[in-house]
Amino acid sequence: MSKTVCVLGTFDTKGEDHAFLREEILKLGLKVLTVNVGVLGSTTLFPVDHEADEVFQGAGHDLEKIRARKDKAEAMKALDLGAPKLIRRLYEQGRFDGIVGMGGSGGSSIIAAAMRALPIGLPKVLVSTVASGDVSFYVRGKDIVMIPSIVDVAGLNRVSRLIYTRAAGGICGMVQNEPPHSSEDRPIITASMFGNTTECVNACAKALKDKGFEVLVFHATGTGGAGDGNARRRRFGRGCTRHHHDRVGR
User: Fold this and answer.
1) pLDDT, tens digit, for every residue of 173-218?
2) What residues contact residue 23 under an 8 Å CB cut-off, 6+ apart?
3) What is the predicted pLDDT for the residue at 222?
4) Which of 16, 36, 61, 111 has the fewest Cβ atoms surrounding its Cβ within 10 A?
């Protein structure tokens, strides 16, 4: 049975880009479900399955009223609430098997919020102008794959075609490659680990596994351990920066 990829984006301003992405996914033999989060309108370049008014309704807002007020902050807040609700509902209905979106900083924020409403393991790809910097605001604790757009997501050219084609191949490959299903139902224990505590944590993990537990190890300077600078200095010394600690810990 053919898998379906959800294409999520602002089709009002980036319709040409998403039309190309959609065609590349179709070429690879997958189906496409399209969701528009564009405030200004839609596109006639391809069929849109769910328009922006449905997204705004899910957040308890009227799109036409927001358009009339021309309040970008209000629109972004409504999309940040409505997009995750709609995408989660479509996923729970079994409408798609993976999701991909493209955008600048604003669009990426909305798309990432929707992706974070989905469970870990469901393929998520975001082509973004901000993907080359600190993406913790967008990814947070979820497995969102962010691809730098290199050029702006603002029309087709020799660079954007290349990036969009690879993004289509990436999400299609992820969707088609089913992870193995495990019948194990062992109790779970989590552990955090620095580079210089690896030997100890590995020994503990082995002992716990021998006792019938499944151990999930997290890096302590990742999302779960990204404390403020003062906390790091208190733990590792006043002159110890996060970069320095990571380097020493290896």
Assistant:
1) 999 998 887 767 889 998 888 888 899 999 999 999 999 999 988 8
2) none
3) 61
4) 16
Residues 126 and 236 placed together within one structural domain of the fold: no
Question: Cβ distance 56 to 66 under 8 Å?
Answer: yes
Strand partners, 169: none
| Joined tokens for residue 154 | 């603002």
Which residues, at least 6 apart from 15, have a Cβ–Cβ distance to it below 8 Å? 42, 43, 44, 45, 46
Phi and psi at residue 189, to the nearest 5°: -125, 135
Comparison of pLDDT for 28 and 68, the residue scoring more? 28
The three-state secondary structure class of 98 is: strand
Q: Are residues 168 and 192 in the same domain?
A: no
Q: How many domains does the chain have?
A: 2
Which pLDDT score, from 0 to 100, does residue 247 have?
A: 37
Which residues partner with 14 through β-bridges?
none
CB 41 within 8 A of CB 12: yes
Q: What is the mean pLDDT of the chain?
A: 87
Residues 206 and 141 in one domain: no
**Measured distance CA(160)–CA(126) in Å, rounded:** 14
For tokens 């600190």, name the residue.
134
Q: How far apart are CA 4 and CA 26, in angstroms?
A: 10
Residues 57 and 112 in one domain: yes
Residue 181 lies in a domain: no
Of 38, 165, 170, residue with least CA distance to 110:
38
The answer on 111 and 229 residing in a single domain is no
Residue 145: φ, ψ to 5°: -90, 115
The residue segments making up the domain with residue 164 are 4-176
Same-domain check for residues 130 and 221: no
